[in-house]
Amino acid sequence: MDQRSSGLGQKQLKLSEGCHLRHVDLDGVTLPWDLPRLTGLRSLQIRNIKDDFPSVERIAAILSGSPELWWLLLADFETTASEPQPQPQPAGNDPPPTGTTTQPPSVVTLSPIVLPNLSTLVFQGLPDSLSSPLLSAIIGSKLEKLVATDISTKPMTQPDSNFQSLLGTVTSSLKRIEITYNERNSEFGISSERIVEVPNEWIHHIDECPGLAIRVKVPPSLPTWDMVAKFVGGLPVPASDNLLVLQDHSEASPFPVQTLNEWDFIAEVEISPAYDPRPLFEHLSQPQTVYPAGEQKWPLPNLSQVYSKRNEADSQEMKEALVNFLRRSNALQTPNTGASEELPLALARPKQLQKLKVHSSILESLKEDPTLAGIEIISTS
């Protein structure tokens, strides 16, 4: 059944009793969501619904009754009643601001939804009250394409969530993943090298190659970031060539560099012109203590390429931070480089940086510095 609104307002279809539907495509049109015919589906696509969309429990019932479902797309569900918002999380162990409460909105917990044939899952523009419980409940061992944008961190941080397993089914089949964070809008992303795009058409128009596009709003809370870092660190990912992109800059929502202690799989880092890389370089310049084990390790030990688009020609701090970072792969061979004298002898040395791409003015300030030896240097203007 393919039904689309004429644009003159949302309609509700009235269907009589009959056989179970197999394929449902609704665009700006609703149904009586308790129809018995909405079980045994093989594909379900619902878009552009205002207010009269099914409850999360009803969606779960439809999905649980459709074990042969291979395509699921839910997009652009608009509600005129605002959802309850959690209070801002304090950073670190800071107490909550005076006069505020930290009571979170109620969370719906669904039983596992097993969809053994699901290959494509798309959630875009959904209320968190729908996307979080569903992403935490769905189990799909054959998933190849996953798009989930405008979601919260709940599926990543709540206990008993199946989201890591669901996401890992896709990441394990990819050749490369890209992780991005934009400090200005607090948006964290995980994607395949070829970003999945979902056109506003029926299912046969979508790219059938495996792909991933996740966009999450992360609050400026160190405990939340710690859980997100461990979540991502526990994913099965490609062995090499994975990229981290850091964009823009904001004092309100800075990227916590200690997150990198969990991401040994990152091989390349790209820094936007507006991002200040000095805290990053300083963190990467020395071993970090990883808790709860209390062991020391180098962050990003497999890092081989750095591309910084930032121009800091007159910044001595920038030069020092970059030089200290470049020395890290030789730390155990140079006993007279400050902190390197106290490094544990058994600590494995990080991989030698292979390529550095930075602004020409920065390279000029590093001219003839021995830390550049053995590194392919690319100058940008």
Morphology? elongated
Low-confidence stretches: 86-95, 99-103, 332-341
Gyration radius, in Å: 24 Å
Question: Percent of residues in beta strands?
Answer: 15-25%
Which class best fits the helix and strand makeup? alpha/beta
Order of helices and strands: EEEEEHEEEHEEHHEEEHEEHEEEHEHE
Q: What is the total tally of β strands?
A: 20
Query: What proportion of the residues is helical, as a percent range?
Result: 10-25%
What integer is the average pLDDT?
83
Largest sheet: 14 strands, mixed
N-to-C span: 56 Å
Strands of the widest sheet, in order across it, are 1-3-5-6-8-10-13-12-11-14-15-18-19-20
* Total helical elements: 8
Can you give a write-up of this model?
This protein is an alpha/beta fold and 381 residues long. The protein has helices at residues 56-64, 128-137, 154-157, 163-171, 222-233, 278-284, 316-326, 360-365; strands spanning 2-4, 11-12, 23-27, 29-30, 43-50, 71-78, 113-114, 120-124, 138-139, 145-151, 177-182, 187-192, 211-217, 242-247, 266-271, 288-290, 295-297, 305-308, 355-359, 376-380. A 14-stranded mixed sheet has the order 1-3-5-6-8-10-13-12-11-14-15-18-19-20. Strand 16 and strand 17 (295-297) form a beta hairpin. The longest helix has 12 residues, at 222-233.
